[in-house]
Amino acid sequence: MKYVLVTGGVVSGLGKGVTASSIGLLLKACGLRVTAIKIDPYLNTDAGTMSPIEHGEVYVLDDGGEVDLDLGNYERFMDVKLTRDNNITTGKIYQSVIDKERRGDYLGKTVQVVPHITDAIQDWIERVAHIPVDGKEGPADVCVIELGGTIGDIESMPFIQALGHFSYRVGASNFCLVHVSLVPVLNVVGEQKTKPTQHSVRGLRSQGLTPQILACRSTMALDENAKTKLSQFCLLPGENIITLYDVPNIWHIPLLLRDQKAHEAIFKVLNLTGIAQEPNLEEWTCRAESSDLLHEPVRIALVGKYTCLSDSYLSVLKALIHASVSCQKKLVVDWISATNLENATAKENPDVYKASWKLLKGADGILVPGGFGDRGVQGKIIAAKYARENRIPYLGICLGMQVAVIEFARSVLGLKDANSTEIDPNTKSPCVIFMPEGSKTHMGGTMRLGSRRTYFQTKLCKSAKLYGGKSFIDERHRHRYEVNPDLVTSLENSGLSFTGKDETGQRMEIVEIPNHPYFVGVQFHPEFKSRPGRPSPVFLGFIAAACGQLEAVLQHSSRGVSSDNISSGKTYQNGTATKAQAFKPEYIYGNGNANGNGFHY
């Protein structure tokens, strides 16, 4: 097993995740089997209880693991299926060591950070690296490891110590360290400054790790003077210094690595020269370059609770992009805070209220994503009502499905107090209820999580057609509340159709309005399984409906034709997820987020 470690220096948010993902994609294109591990130094056991506004979205895996959004990067770039153990946290490591100590596994020894914590980290990496994630037998050839945070962070020190030991444990020819660092350009003089990276490398070496490759983030390609300085002061050959400069979209990053022969530098360190082949990225190149040429917009209003941080809906954004590229449209996302659609905002801030409604009314499609708590729920209900009554394509995910059911019950069934018990525990018309198997005392890991099966009730509905006429599908879930099965008959008799249910037939998974151009709500999170070139079917249907291509998509899907490019049959691909600020994918123009950006990174 070979290991490639990706670390970061100077500042956070440089794009370590997309760099690690791009390295994995590049190695895979060279014919190697690749897996990935993300190390998060925080004390939480997992990301499940973190606020999306602080940490970004919680990415959910097939096995129910609630993990860092960077694992979404890996899955989308490398096209693999990871497990919860592919995300290491300080909390997991310390918990495992404490459990061992309580069992008496350490035989009365004093349990310390070195060697017990550091050994546990190394054992975890080695064990997980050998778990196949690509559907084939046997372990991968290379494991890409990303160390979260920045060199010098106090919480990262045990991991750096462990990784230093690990490099000796596996041998120099099996361990390659890629350090991602910032080379800023000062506007005053216009010169690329290498000193921050020099100090970062020095700090890394002082902690026992020596980088073999430097990946320098900058606004432009490194000039020869800067490269020479870095080579001299960081003691690295010039060919091992890679520039990751700002590009039109994310998917050019693997191509930058390839063009600068990053794979050859890695092969030289890992003694893979002559074993691995030249990278075949023809399809990726075509898709990356073609996505730059899209200009005809499709405008989507995203009505959410956490719109101040795009990372909160990162996988939703990527699924929208996958679908829009397949339809040859340039995605425009208008971010609307759900509370801004409510009457209270009309009184308190009429300008914001009017601006939000203008965006909603100008949208080609309305998407209401998931969320927790009562804030903004009324605004989401209002958005669902507007989409239903005005025949605007609508996609509701998790809570977005639930509010659509609540709105229908209020407006069509006449249940004016219809609500979710999450929002109003005392409602007399509970449309959405707490799941009986859920825990009301513990929050972490107690939801209905991971891949669950949904059975279509008819193959004539839009969602079944989009999934190619299958009898059932497996999608990832993350929820505590569900549609009240006691109201299903009344809702269906009034025109709502629950076209997808679980194996018991009691849990509603997909809801549609048959006589609407496209009104679909899903209890699961289809965005987590959307891939470049293989967009999520319900997202594809949503975007296609928003730009007048739904019938063509349904025909393609029913015949089992690839959805790579609905309009012309060509093969295009958008890229994959990364953290919001990294590498500037400037194809997503919109009204901006709460920070006032004219376009959304």
TrEMBL record:
Domain of life: Eukaryota
Pfam families: CTP_synth_N, GATase
Keyword Glycosyltransferase: no
Positions of the CTP synthase N-terminal domain: 2-272
GO molecular function term, any single one: identical protein binding
Pathway where this protein functions: Pyrimidine metabolism; CTP biosynthesis via de novo pathway; CTP from UDP: step 2/2
HAMAP family in the cross-refs: PyrG
Functional note: Catalyzes the ATP-dependent amination of UTP to CTP with either L-glutamine or ammonia as the source of nitrogen.
Protein name from the UniProt record: CTP synthase
Protein's organism: Pisum sativum (Garden pea)
